[in-house]
Design goal:
Helix content is 30%, strand content 30%. The chain is of the alpha+beta class.
């Protein structure tokens, strides 16, 4: 699995439009931010993501998931890295309000891809200073070449 393959797979979730849908992870139908990341990783061959999506436990979170749940899931599926070491293909966790609760994939050319409630779909846009100021953790999918 390469960063380019991860980004290419993530972009296939843009068209046909994948709607934002809480606790979903189905390309072209619906996904929330964690479901989108896990779906992309599973499609790229991540055994951890495939196991995660095959267990009902991953859907046991509210609209505002707890940081403990989120960080625990990330620690199971990916390797934590320094935020300053994050590169295209890596995953960022952002605060929304006062709590860490949103996932996005770093794309190339200074962009990010994520299932975003505000856009009501999987979207790609600039990873600008506003978003960067909200990053609290970064992760790399296992098996990246």
């Amino acid at each position: 699995m390469t960063p380019a393959a991860i980004i290419a797979e993530a972009r296939t979730w843009l068209e046909p439009k994948t709607a934002w849908r809480h606790q979903a992870s189905l390309k072209g139908v619906g996904a929330d931010c964690i479901g989108f990341i896990a779906g992309v990783a599973a499609a790229c061959g991540s055994a951890e993501a495939q196991r995660f999506l095959s267990t009902p436990a991953w859907r046991r979170y509210g609209r505002e998931p707890s940081p403990d749940f989120m960080f625990g899931v990330c620690d199971q599926l990916m390797d934590r890295i320094e935020i300053t070491d994050a590169r295209p293909g890596d995953v960022l966790i952002f605060t929304c309000g006062n709590h860490p609760m949103h996932f996005a994939l770093i794309a190339d050319h200074g962009k990010m891809i994520h299932a975003w409630l505000v856009a009501r779909r999987v979207a790609e846009h600039e990873l600008d200073a506003k978003w960067l100021a909200r990053v609290v953790r970064a992760y790399r999918m296992r098996g990246i070449a």
